[in-house]
Amino acid sequence: MFAREIRLVRGQALVLVHNDPALRTMMARAIAKAYGAHEEATAAAVLDSGTDSFTAWMRKQLNTLVLDGTPTTPPGLNRIKAAITNDRMVLAAGQGLVEITPPNFIFCTGRADWLPKDASQRRYRVVQVADLELAA
What we know:
Layout: E1 13-17, H1 21-33, E2 38-42, H2 43-47, H3 51-59, E3 64-68, H4 74-85, E4 89-93, E5 96-100, E6 104-109, E7 124-128
């Protein structure tokens, strides 16, 4: 399977698993690039650092957010679940509220055992990077 054949689907995060961080990030970049505006961050900075950090990242209205690592706290897991599950989110914006479309998410990790026990294929698609190639 080639990286260009991977499709990002709203409502489903892509989880790229490989023991080489550089390789999985390179694959994630190749996939995200095909979807336009994207950025990279650590999962801890976006999901586990509190509501303000999560809101700031969501307000960027990216097409794809590539996250190195995985959420490590229950609030972090709840934030990503909400962002994956909902087509639209309402966020605080100064004195008011703003409605946004959450980005696609690509997690880059060395392991898939962090997934919530109730996680299903409908919410997370796990792909072993070793099974991917960059180009034909």
